[in-house]
């Protein structure tokens, strides 16, 4: 029986070879797209799953009305909470300090560093290679090394390095090696090449509202997490009240501070804040949903083409029923035929994934490998489920034919068959229209952001960050001055400036500022804009009123300030009335700053973020000067490459010998803020093209089958004198009507989806009308082109062939 079914299946595949190829290609592309996005989602979900303690470890996140939800906490919030609340079994902190230089003798390594405390390895039990975790980081003179770092410093005898001393650039002192560990090979955001005790904790032990550390709690099993969040929130609120009285700022009592505990196993995708290297869950879920629609579209093609082929197999079904075949056997036969197509498409999809995965990894910046057996298990189950769902409708449809009707040849005109095909085709075109609408609106929003006036000119500006950051004796301040003086002598360097904040990296230091005469007027989240004298001129930032800071006027350097337009508005002034007003800042609260000028708003962060209020002032008049850790250089456009080579030579031989030369153009640095949305645009455009190709291939196959069924009608019309235009229009108008109905139905779905997507943008386009209209015209044109091609071919048939029995 199975052998007979297979013979019938392959006879029909060969007979309808074009529709079979279209089905296989459509399904394979749909499966490929779905599986690529699915494995990306699974890869993101796999972060921290290696940790045996993941179910009981929580990241401490904080919310306030000024900054929203933050991934960082204060030192006392973490460790006093551990002592106060018995539900907390243990606590730790961790900060990624980026790449740092660590040396042993003549050997050195430039690797990632983590600042933490001794409890770190209780939370993150990396496999131990040598040493002792128990006392690995009990004081600020100890360091633990990864196996790779130890090998770089000590060679093949790195196991014997326990007790030896290494030198770390952080404060340029010696550390004793206490442990060597293996970094996890599994996905994790915690992969430091060496860890040491955070040297600045002593200054933070009483500062409840100084959010500086990633904090973690290990909770006792069965603890009420919501209850702990409420207890710590109340404690934070009390400490905030004490701090407000001390520093004289107002508390937003309607929106008190809150604490959230996010499970370690979920922080990659579900942290309430920006988390630690957080993934873009919303985009992944949107893409996963859209790829599911593509898979659905592929299934619709299969269903539609199979039902359209019904008239060709009606007599086969009638004969088989007449000789005793049951309905269940017919259904199984047709399901087997569908499964063969789906399995072939699945194998082809896996081959496509293997081919596309390197490019996909490069696009995502990841190293995903398809070597997980569970992936094949899940996709195998998906294949069976998909085959069952997409095959059951045509199978049920075909098996329900009545022998008496099919043997008389009356099925082709069945209203039920026409209604089913039209309904399925409508769904197909609804999905296509939805994709076109969304793709056009996403393109319009990204274009709007990229064409927005950024408020600064950063062309031909290079930023170089210092690698050494010692705090004593004004080290950074002196180093900046020295570098500025020496680099300015190099040929091709036209101007140099510096600032605490970096364009494209966002505001990293902020506080609460207020009107010196009216303390009720406050501006929370005010950026600390410590700048060199020429900074605003350097970036050609426009003044709306007043003037720039002048280093030759003593009062300007001591208490002069320039503010941005957003700051003036939040304080209740316009650019003109803000001039001359005195303000108090959270970083220097006892000193009054006088507003000398107001500049046009410009973006430190991406244009998807709201502009932060900023106060600009002389960087070298207080403690802020030692935060200066970068230099910004404008190079001549005549010889950019040559100038960069001269800067590199100076840097490697005089500025920071032994370190790699790393720089970034400010324009490119800012352009990185667009990457997420440009990738969304690229992915959505790609998916849109895939959808249209699948839909049009399906439409072509369906229209071919349906028009072939009407060739006798075409022959009769030609005999009666109908011209080609009339025949083509008669054959295509039904498809065009279905297209119009589908686009109208898709419009509210597209509007809702895009309105939700645009809500994330503080600066967004108004919902445009033209994508909906363009979607209609585009689909009408494509539908007419595809169907009319086959319709025109139908007008060239031989009349004798189709009328010889009439």
Automatic annotation (TrEMBL):
Membrane topology, from the record:
Multi-pass membrane protein
Per the record, GO CC terms? Answer: plasma membrane
One GO MF annotation is: transmembrane transporter activity
**InterPro entries from the entry?**
ABC3_permease_C, MacB_PCD, Macrolide_Exporter_MacB
Q: Which residues form the ABC3 transporter permease C-terminal domain?
A: 290-402, 688-798
Pfam families named among the record's database cross-references? FtsX (PF02687), MacB_PCD (PF12704)
| Alphabetically ordered keywords of this record | Cell membrane, Membrane, Transmembrane, Transmembrane helix
According to the record, the segments passing through the membrane are: 21-41, 284-305, 330-353, 373-398, 419-442, 683-707, 735-754, 769-792
Q: Does the keyword Membrane apply?
A: yes
Cellular compartments annotated: Cell membrane
Q: Where does the MacB-like periplasmic core domain start and stop, copy by copy?
A: 20-234, 429-648
Please tell me where this protein is predominantly located: membrane
Top-level lineage group: Bacteria
Q: What's the protein called, per UniProt?
A: Antibiotic ABC transporter permease
């Amino acid at each position: 029986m199975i052998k007979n079914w297979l013979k019938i299946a392959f006879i029909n595949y060969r007979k309808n070879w074009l529709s079979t190829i279209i089905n296989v290609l459509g399904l394979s592309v749909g499966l490929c797209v779905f599986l690529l996005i699915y494995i990306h989602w699974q890869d993101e979900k796999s972060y921290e799953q290696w940790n045996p303690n993941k179910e009981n470890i929580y990241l401490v996140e904080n919310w306030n009305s000024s900054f929203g939800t933050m991934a960082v906490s204060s030192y006392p919030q973490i460790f006093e909470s551990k002592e106060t609340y018995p539900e907390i079994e243990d606590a730790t902190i961790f900060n990624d300090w980026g790449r740092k230089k660590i040396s042993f003798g003549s050997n050195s390594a430039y690797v990632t560093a983590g600042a933490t405390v001794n409890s770190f390895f209780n939370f993150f039990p990396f496999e131990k290679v040598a040493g002792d975790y128990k006392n690995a980081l009990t004081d600020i003179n100890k360091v633990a090394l990864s196996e790779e770092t130890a090998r770089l410093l000590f060679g093949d005898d790195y196991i014997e390095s326990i007790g030896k001393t290494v030198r770390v650039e952080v404060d340029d002192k010696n550390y004793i090696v206490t442990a060597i560990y293996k970094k996890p090979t599994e996905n994790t955001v915690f992969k430091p090449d060496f860890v040491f005790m955070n040297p600045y904790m002593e200054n933070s032990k009483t500062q409840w509202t100084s959010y500086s550390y990633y904090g973690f709690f290990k909770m006792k099993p069965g603890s009420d997490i919501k209850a702990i969040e409420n207890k710590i929130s109340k404690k934070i609120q009390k400490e905030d009240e004490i701090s407000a009285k001390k520093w004289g700022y107002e508390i937003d009592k309607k929106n008190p501070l809150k604490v959230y505990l996010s499970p370690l196993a979920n922080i990659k995708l579900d942290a309430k804040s920006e988390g630690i290297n957080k993934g873009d869950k919303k985009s992944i879920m949107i893409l996963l949903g859209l790829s599911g629609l593509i898979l659905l579209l592929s299934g619709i093609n299969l269903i539609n083409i199979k039902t359209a082929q019904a008239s060709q197999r009606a007599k086969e079904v009638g004969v088989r029923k007449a000789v005793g075949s049951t309905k269940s056997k017919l259904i199984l036969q047709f399901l087997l035929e569908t499964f063969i197509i789906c399995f072939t498409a699945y194998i082809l999809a896996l081959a496509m994934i293997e081919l596309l995965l390197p490019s996909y990894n490069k696009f995502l910046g990841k190293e995903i490998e398809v070597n997980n057996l569970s992936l094949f298990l899940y996709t195998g189950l998906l294949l069976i489920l998909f085959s069952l769902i997409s095959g059951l409708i045509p199978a049920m449809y075909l098996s329900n034919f009545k022998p008496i009707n099919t043997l008389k040849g009356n099925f082709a005109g069945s209203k039920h068959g026409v209604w089913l095909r039209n309904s399925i085709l409508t769904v197909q075109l609804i999905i296509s229209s939805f994709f076109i609408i969304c793709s056009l609106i996403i393109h319009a929003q990204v274009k709007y952001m990229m064409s927005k006036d950024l408020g600064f000119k950063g062309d031909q500006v290079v930023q170089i960050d210092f690698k050494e950051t010692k705090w004593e004796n004004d080290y950074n301040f002196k180093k900046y001055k020295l570098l500025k003086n020496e680099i300015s002598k190099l040929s091709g360097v036209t101007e140099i400036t510096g600032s605490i904040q970096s364009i494209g990296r966002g505001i990293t230091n902020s506080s609460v500022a207020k009107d010196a005469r009216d303390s009720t007027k406050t501006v929370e989240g005010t950026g600390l804009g410590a700048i060199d004298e020429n900074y605003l001129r350097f970036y050609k930032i426009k003044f709306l009123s007043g003037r720039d800071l002048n280093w030759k006027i003593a009062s300007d350097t001591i208490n002069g300030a320039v503010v941005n337009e957003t700051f003036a508005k939040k304080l209740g002034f316009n650019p003109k009335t803000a001039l001359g007003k005195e303000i108090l800042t959270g970083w220097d609260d006892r000193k009054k700053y006088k507003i000398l000028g107001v500049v046009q708003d410009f973006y430190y962060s991406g244009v998807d973020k709201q502009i932060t209020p900023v106060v600009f002032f002389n960087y070298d008049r207080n403690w802020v000067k030692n935060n200066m850790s970068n230099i910004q250089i404008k190079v001549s456009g005549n010889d950019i490459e040559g100038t960069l080579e001269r800067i590199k030579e100076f840097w490697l031989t005089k500025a920071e010998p032994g370190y790699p030369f790393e720089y970034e153009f400010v324009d490119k640095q800012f352009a990185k803020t667009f990457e997420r949305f440009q990738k969304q645009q690229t992915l959505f455009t790609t998916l849109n093209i895939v959808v249209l190709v699948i839909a049009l291939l399906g439409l072509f196959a369906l229209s071919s089958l349906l028009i072939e069924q009407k060739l006798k009608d075409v022959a009769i019309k030609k005999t009666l004198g109908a011209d080609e235009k009339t025949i083509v229009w008669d054959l295509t108008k039904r498809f065009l009507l279905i297209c119009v109905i589908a686009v109208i139905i898709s419009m509210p779905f597209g509007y809702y989806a895009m309105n939700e997507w645009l809500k994330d943008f503080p600066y967004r386009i108004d919902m445009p009308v033209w994508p909906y209209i363009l979607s209609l015209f585009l689909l009408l044109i494509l539908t007419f082109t595809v169907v009319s091609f086959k319709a025109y071919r139908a007008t060239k048939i031989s009349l004798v062939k189709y009328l010889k029995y009439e």
